[in-house]
Design brief:
The protein is of the alpha/beta class and 169 residues long. It has one domain: Rossmann fold (3-Layer(aba) Sandwich). 39% of the residues lie in helices and 18% in strands. The protein contains 6 helices and 7 strands. Strand 4, helix 4 and strand 5 form a beta-alpha-beta unit. The protein is globular and about 45 Å long.
Length: 169
Amino acid sequence: MGLQLAQRDVAVIYGGCRTGLMGVLAESYVAGGGTSITGVIPRGLIQFSSPLLTEVHVTDTIHQRKRMMLDLSDGFVTLPGGLGTLDELLEVLDLGRIGAHEKPIGILNVDNYFDPFMTLLQHVRDTGFVFHLTFSRPIVDDICERLLDTLIDRIPSTTSEIIIPKTAG
């Protein structure tokens, strides 16, 4: 993912850590020639921040972190991860559902990781717990290049900054 973002000259805004998939993303982005990588990291995790960041925003809370990443971004890509990743994904989906943003949301479905999640979203819709028919529909793909091309095509602005939610690591 990092290499593909760098090749497309897309600025990255992400959780800012040097560990886990976040660290791999940062390393591959910079190795691929990426030049703009912003970390948004809570004060309590600053000791884990990546030395590769070109810009750092420190927040007091996770809520502030998520809000800042939403405000700074033009679109979102979610990679497989843990509860924090799912929390961030659900938040951008729900905010899109209520019209708080119209930014494209992509899910990289590596090895069908997100299939149960997508089944759950459909179940929530089918059972009537989502009342808006315009429920945010993420772009789901298992091919990184294709996902990014589709996502970037749906970004209305001239810039292309994509959030990579924090991942377990």
